[in-house]
Amino acid sequence: MARIAVTPEISIDEAELAFSFARAGGPGGQNVNKVETAAQLRFDVTNSASLSEAVKRRLERLAGSRLTKDGVLVIFAQTQRSQDLNRQEALARLLRLIATAAEKPKPRIKTRPTLAARKRRVESKVRRGETKRLRTAPPE
């Protein structure tokens, strides 16, 4: 089977993709009622041999509600009027999602506010408190 390149390091086997087709709504006239143009792409993330565990975890997080309980990513494309274009769109969306998941997140470096920043914060709080104090009614 052919392999589809996602990134220079990652490629997925075409056999891991399952396409099914359904009737789509939207523009298309009588064609919409007769032809199954909407494409549904299913990709089993949890059992994929093409992806590393780290990429799988990030992909599962990115997929959100498109991921089933079984770990299958479902992408539904129906914006185009032809089956082939919807199939290509669904595949492109999957490849974009995997490419995004393949990027390693930059580790956060903890920083502390400078002494000057802490002083400015306290001064602004004091000024704000003074403004609010002046709004109260004068004592009798």
From TrEMBL:
Pfam family membership, one: RF-1
Entry-linked InterPro entries: Pep_chain_release_fac_I
Disordered: annotated segments: 105-140
GO molecular function, one term: peptidyl-tRNA hydrolase activity
Key words of the record: Hydrolase
Membrane-spanning ranges: none
Known EC number: 3.1.1.29
Protein name listed in UniProt: Alternative ribosome rescue aminoacyl-tRNA hydrolase ArfB
Species annotation: Methylocapsa polymorpha
Gene name for this UniProt entry: arfB
